[in-house]
Write a structure and sequence with these properties.
This protein is α+β, with helices and mostly antiparallel strands and 259 residues long. A hairpin with a 2-residue loop joins strand 1 and strand 2.
């Protein structure tokens, strides 16, 4: 990710978590604890760029200029996906299935299709059979060229037959051992306590390093998790525990930055 995007996302993260503790999350109050950091020189330019991209909106509250996150900015701060919101989605019991058999001469198309399916949370039971628990509007748009070629590509909705289970589909379609390893790695990488938080707040360079490591580790964990609705979670799923660790870490930090 380009350096400018990284700085922007880290700033959005701090605005996201500290804003929950502030009635007026002004630029000065959010950033006053790391004046020595190089961000101090970048922030005004970053704020302007993020406002132009509709990630932030500015408001005047008396004599103060207040920046607040837009819905788009909040989603960007979360890494592009909102785990609690996706976990809370109800499931209608239907599996959306993508089945395809592309000719040998269309390997580039096949690779692009696989990448799109992985990036959008689909799990594969076979290389040419992918499943997802929710309707995905973008799928129809992305694959419009195949809509009338049912011998090459088809979309279907189905329930499990008697004798088969949704749990077995989840186990076969996604690698939850790898997903859990990544969440456990995230927790070990960014775990904080009161002593470490004080050290970070007292050292802007350490703070910047931790924030960058946190963002990278969270994105790495989230990249392979389909964020299934709670009713489909496998046993010992570590996603919620990792999310709670993240929330607690930022609460500790914001408590020191914005007492």
């Amino acid at each position: 990710m380009p350096a400018q995007s990284s700085v922007a996302e880290e700033l959005l993260l701090m605005l996201l978590w500290t804003a929950e503790r502030l009635s007026q999350p002004t630029f000065q109050r959010v950033t006053e604890s790391y004046e020595a950091w190089e961000w101090r020189h970048r922030i005004p330019r970053q704020l302007q760029r993020m406002e132009e991209r509709k990630l932030l909106a500015r408001e005047k509250r008396g004599a103060e200029l207040v920046f607040r996150l837009t819905d788009l900015g909040r989603l960007r701060a979360l890494g592009g996906r909102n785990p609690p919101k996706q976990w809370a989605r109800p499931w209608d019991g239907l599996w959306r299935q993508v089945l395809f058999d592309l000719p040998i001469g269309r390997q580039t198309v096949r690779a692009r299709l696989w990448r799109w399916l992985r990036d959008n949370g689909f799990g594969y039971l076979q290389q040419s059979l992918w499943v997802h628990p929710h309707p995905v509007k973008e799928l129809l748009e992305a694959l419009e060229d195949f809509r009338d070629d049912v011998e090459t590509f088809i979309l279907m909705e189905a329930r499990c037959c008697v004798g088969y289970s949704d749990e077995a589909i989840v186990e076969g379609a996604w690698d939850f051992e790898e997903i859990n390893r990544r969440y456990e790695g995230y927790q070990s990488t960014v775990r904080l306590d009161a002593t470490v938080v004080r050290q970070l707040v007292d050292s802007p360079n350490k703070f910047a390093g931790w924030l960058r490591s946190e963002r990278i580790a969270w994105r790495h964990a989230l990249a392979v998790d389909p964020l299934l609705p709670r009713s489909l979670w496998p046993k010992n799923y570590r996603g919620e525990a990792a999310w709670e660790s993240r929330r607690r870490s930022f609460e500790l930090l914001s408590g020191c930055l914005c007492p």
